[in-house]
Design brief:
about 575 residues; Immunoglobulin-like; 5 domains; 6-stranded mixed β-sheet; 54 strands; about 0% helix
């Protein structure tokens, strides 16, 4: 049978006195010479009496002046006691590797360990393989403390005495811990043990559970690592609340159970959220006027309000909205303090949880380009490019060089501008009746940057009258496996019509239900073949309406096939 015995005597040739297992004076580390330091250390052994094989606990309280030391302050712990011989080979002889310290730290099975403070306290646990007189040291810089512990063999067991009452919980110290778990916490209360000796010393701690609230909503068993002699304190190691990162604080109801019953302390402990760094994936649009005031969307992850967004150069942007889930921030671009005579690339910095003390920052270089101060508008396309002479059609102008505020002219008529940025203007086509009641009539569309007087270097035609055009489809999404009903709005539809839908390079005909001059009722065809082996993703589609009699056609706005039965649209 393997035994651990304290070494009584060492002489030349390593002659061991094993008959009586008597102790010699323990080698001790030289006491460090105190040096001037702002720190002070108090060392408390929390397990008494100390028995062989028990897990023993100690705490070093570190202060800087009158305040607890900052969290994360390193504390060097060391143990000095006797060496023990374990006859691993059962041969009665001392073999290599059979001599080791009797008392070691539980965490690393050695006599040296560094722990960090939390709330000004660093904790360690240790155990002895044999009876030992051991000294525990704690050092922080030039400050140190020591405690001497006598570890003895356990006395003959006596029947334990059950607790006389259910436990009570007064407080948890500290009441806050990391969202990753792994913190030592002391439960302060009464009758926290299930069984005691006849002298009233705890021999079996009660069990502990954490009932963790949102966003975890789970119950976790909690390991008890030590208990005070009279059962008024339990030292626990907080469990990991969730295998996934904790994105918001979680409150915990603590439950202690002994043989007489259970008690709970509601919201007695709080896991703090793990601080995930924000990420920036893209910026849409990625160009804009140096005058600022344009709406930009920053796509990314882990954006937690309050947020701060800064353009460099440019300055702090106005935050319009932060999407639930932290994946988008909508801002208005800042105005540059000086005019830009050439395009200027800017970095964007996002600070998440700004001003809370848990600020985290990410910067994306080259994320945005401020266009030169004086630019000439250039038009690429109109959508739609036709409408009734009464006006009222919502028209999107695509191009470059638009600097707010802008003026849009349909011929000599000014349109109402709904919104604008450097690459896109949304406006309402003006009426040309009664000056031109005939149809069809074509006018030229132009854009003026009002502040600089720059007029677009080209124009695009817009047709008023009976020509076919499509203004909208509602709903503009549908189930990818269903014949989804939809209404196409526009002008110039003459039955019979054909509606062709193209998605993923495949073209199918929709089922036409009814036709009027300004609307068509259809059922959009399914595209089951676009569902891949890896599952379904939204699929964009286009559609075209053709008057079969005249072969006149028009292409409609975007339509999206979804993977569920939900629909959306104007």
């Amino acid at each position: 049978m393997k035994k651990a015995l304290p070494i009584a005597l060492l002489v030349s040739g390593l002659v061991l006195g094993l008959g009586s297992c008597s102790k010699s004076d323990s080698p001790t580390a030289p006491r460090p010479s105190p040096t001037p330091s702002a720190a002070s250390v108090t060392l408390t052994v929390e397990s008494s009496p100390a028995y062989v094989g028990d897990i023993l606990a100690a705490a070093a309280t570190v202060r800087q002046g009158s305040s607890p030391a900052p969290d994360g302050t390193p504390v060097q712990f060391s143990l000095r006691g006797q060496n023990c011989w374990s006859d691993k080979n059962n041969n009665g002889q001392v073999d290599a590797g059979e001599i080791a310290p009797c008392t070691v730290f539980v965490e690393n099975d050695t006599t040296e360990i560094t722990k960090t403070t939390q709330g000004g306290v660093a904790r360690v646990t240790f155990k002895s393989k044999a009876s030992d007189d051991v000294t525990l040291y704690a050092r922080v810089g030039g400050a140190y403390a020591e405690a001497r512990i006598t570890v003895t063999g356990k006395p003959e067991p006596v029947p334990p005495v059950p607790a006389s009452s259910a436990p009570r919980i007064f407080a948890l110290d500290p009441p806050v811990g990391s969202g990753k778990g792994g913190d030592y916490v002391t439960i302060v209360g009464d009758a926290l043990c299930s069984y005691y000796t006849a002298a009233g010393q705890c021999v079996q701690p009660g069990s502990v559970q954490f009932q963790i609230g949102p966003p975890v909503n789970a119950t976790r068993d909690v390991p008890v690592v030590a208990a005070s002699a009279n059962g008024d304190r339990l030292v626990i190691l907080t469990p990991q609340p969730s295998p996934n990162p904790l994105t918001s604080d979680a409150l915990v109801t603590v439950v202690v159970t002994n043989v007489k019953g259970s008690t709970s302390a509601t919201n007695a402990f709080r896991y703090t959220a793990q601080q995930l760094p924000p990420l920036i994936y893209s910026v849409v649009p990625s160009t804009g006027s140096a005058r600022g005031g344009e709406q930009v969307t920053i796509n990314g992850a882990n954006f937690v309000e309050p947020v701060k967004v800064e353009f460099a150069p440019g300055g702090v942007a106005e935050v319009v909205d932060v999407l639930a889930g932290g994946t988008q921030i909508v801002v208005r671009t800042p105005q540059n303090s000086v005019p830009l005579d050439s395009d200027t690339v800017a970095a964007i910095t996002v600070t998440s949880e700004f001003g809370t003390g848990r600020d985290q920052t990410v910067t994306k270089n080259g994320a945005f380009t401020f266009k030169a101060e004086v630019t000439t508008p250039h038009l690429h396309a109109l959508s739609p490019n036709a409408g009734p002479i009464e006006g009222g059609t919502r028209v999107t102008i695509f191009g470059t060089g638009f600097q707010a505020p802008v003026q849009v002219l349909f011929g000599d008529r000014q349109a109402q501008v709904v919104s604008s940025n450097f690459n896109e203007i949304v406006c309402i086509a003006p009426s040309i009746a009664p000056s031109q009641p005939g149809s069809p009539t074509t006018v030229q569309v132009s854009v003026v940057n009002v502040l600089t007087g720059k007029v677009s270097d080209n124009t695009l035609p817009y047709r008023y009258g009976e020509a076919m055009f499509i203004s909208a489809i509602t709903p503009n999404t549908g189930y990818i496996l269903g014949w989804n009903p939809a209404t196409i709005y526009g002008q110039g539809f003459v039955a019979p019509v054909q509606v062709e839908v193209t998605a993923g390079g495949i073209t199918k005909q929709a089922e036409v239900l009814s036709v009027s001059g300004t609307s068509i009722q259809v059922k959009m065809p399914p595209f089951a073949e676009l569902i891949g082996d890896q599952g379904c993703t939204p699929v964009p589609a286009t559609f075209k309406v053709t008057n079969i009699g005249s072969n006149l056609s028009a292409t409609g706005p975007a339509y999206t096939y979804l993977c569920s039965g939900g629909i959306s649209g104007p």
